[in-house]
Amino acid sequence: MDWITTVDHKKIAILYLWAGGFFFGIGGLEAILIRIQLIKPMNTFLDAQTFNELITMHGTTMIFLGVMPVIFALMNAIIPLQIGARDVAFPFLNALGFWTFLFGGLLLNLSWVMGGAPDAGWTAYTPLSSTTYSATHGVDFYTIGLQIAGLGTLIGGINFLATIITMRAPGMSYMRMPMFAWATFITSAIILFAFPAITVGLVLLTFDRILGANFFNPETGGNPVLWQHIFWIFGHPEVYILILPAFGIISEVIPTFSRKRLFGYSSMVFATLLIAFLGFMVWAHHMFTTGLGPVANALFSVSTMLIAVPTGIKIFNWLFTMWGGQVRFTTPNLFAVGFIPTFTMGGVTGVMLASAPADFQFHDTYFVVAHFHYVIVGGLVLGLFAGLHYWWPKMFGRMLSETLGKWTFWTFIIGFHLTFFVQHFLGLMGMQRRVFTYLPNQQFDTLNLVSTVGAGLMGVGMLIFLWNIYITSRKPADAADDPWEDGRTLEWTISSPPPEYNFKQTPLVRGIDAFWKEKLAGHQAMTPSEPVGSIHMPSATLLPFLMSVGIFIAGLGFMFSRDTFGSDVLGFLFNNYIVTGLGLVITFGSMLLRSLFDDHGWHIEPEELEGR
Amino acid sequence: MTTVHAEAGKSALPHEPEKATLEGRNKVLAFWLFLGGEAVLFGTLFATFLALRNSTNDGPSAAELFHLPLVAAATFLLLASSLTSVFAIQAMHRNKPAELRNWLIITVVLGAAFLGLEIYEFSVYVRHEEFGMTTSAFSSAFYTLVGFHGAHVAFGIVWIAILIGQLARKGLTVVTAPKIYVSAMYWHFIDVVWVFIFTVVYLLGKVG
Ligand code: HEM
Ligand SMILES: [Cu+2]
Fold it and tell me: Model ipTM?
């Protein structure tokens, strides 16, 4: 119950972590099944329909329900601490964001047991995703599930923006903010401007499928390429929503374990801003082969290649940070260092793909699959591993085992390169993506086998990580405040895990890497910016959970509103939108309750604070 | 924060009560951000509409369909309601709760009248012109864009109505003021969107 009603950002972080981990596990299983099917030519392990469902759900689950929540977990756990805040700007909305994400994700995955998963690819290209070619409810689960989950992401983004804008500790100017906070800030801004586009896209597709609208149906005047534009106007910025937080994590981990300031801090900030800005101008590089014409292709090609410039700046700054530093290869740092070459390789293939004429060759082959896995897994997932190992003691008060951590790293990264490196060659040799099998003796056989073995090894790495978590959770929670001893930012100045109110006294920030600066000056702790006083806390509430349940019910109701049912009662309830209405009543009722009864919260008094 | 609220007597209300507390400032800021997202949302809907507005699939076209006088009347009502919501905020800043309430009520009534006209308009199209959601890509885009706006109006009406109730129960305080302020921002936003709809959907549909 505690967990269902909590509005504490640190607990919500843990909720995000478990939920994200859960979906990550599902996505991982799907991946393993896909790789088993492709282990040899003409395999009959899966049929084509199941394969389509698996690749669709694998991509969708991983991006929206796997890595995004883990990113949000780290942001929630760390951002208020890093900027010296007692809380986020909207604790209630924070909880609401989590629950809508979770129920959206559950709805999407219900499709497995309710008559067929989505099968039109994670991009749901029309007309493949129309009822003509995808007649089960699968794509409805996709549109409505993602809609609900996306609502949560949008709420989270606005919350982080407001938190970072208004709740920084005194002295923490923008140009003193840790890079992870910057990354969160900019990522949230991208979320704010990218997610509404997919919101509309999903609505239109839902209307096409459930209400018989004609947006994407060419026979009635609709336009399938419109879907691609809307999808990628969201979709390309989305890849930066994924990678910028990883950049932020790497920029925290590398300086800490190099005992040096981040090289080129301000250029890092501006590179991040530039990447975010350019990220909105390049969406059509996913559409070179749809026939936009040479002018459009050339423009999008050049603008895409431009992004390599700020990205390169970042790579060199990390290298220069390590240069001449006292580098310690702890597990987090191993992941961070492993990130650099791996992500760079993904960037290089990105530039190759950005060349429109070349893309006619690469498009829809395993080369693209290799590219985006190098950036998403080799970039983001390695970054998340670095962040999780780095901040685990802060979140849970327990150090993960370094030995197991190193095992995780080596098995995972070797497995990763085995899996995806060879896919570049498969792609260049012409193996198509999204096809459930291939003919023998096209020289695809060995490389596919290698790829599947590599995937197995990555799975082993994940299991070692889970084992590490399990072992660690049985140890006493005795991590030091600053367990890596070279902590540079504010989160390391308070206990691990932090008290409910984070900071007894808001710290005074005197420079970049606030804590490091105090250490250099010979201080053990931050100078407070205020006397000890009574701290206001928001109260726990069930309403965010209820609102999300309501949306979930409404979504299901709407999805089945046009179905015929065996039972009259069910038919009556669904066809007359009674179920939908019930869900909406729950949601809006909860909103009404929220608005009628002010939440005054409660206070922690100074005596209590001193009592610790 | 809360203690301020508890003690805030009538005379103690600050000049800009919506920004008197951190919570209030956060709310206003976050609402600006939210409106940024809403702008993208409507932008995408407009783009969709523009892409599909000539795809009539042998159904009625914009020029055949629209009755500008009706739409102009609706526009007038909505614009007027924006003005009255400005008066409401001015009354709030002068700490006149009764006046504030009256202006809010007028705003809601005008909004409801707009919505009524829109529903009437849609019903005419559906019943007499055989122009429904499924008729053509143009019809789908039309109903979705204009309907989304209408849903926003409906939500705003209910929201402001609830705030009027709250105002009656709790008075004008640093807790209720940010809510009222933010709802007025929302209402202006809806109004601006409508100006675009009027131009892009109706005027452009009639003349070009
Ligand atoms: C930074 C992290 C990045 C991520 C997460 C990412 C992700 C992706 C994804 C998911 C796709 C596949 C789209 C599909 O389903 O067809 C893709 C394709 C593509 N990426 Fe990236 N990418 C990243 C970086 C880059 C960079 C740095 C470039 C170029 C400088 C780039 C250029 C491209 C191009 C041109 C395609 C289209 C290939 C095609 O479909 O034929 N990407 N990327
Ligand atoms: Cu892209």
Answer: 0.94
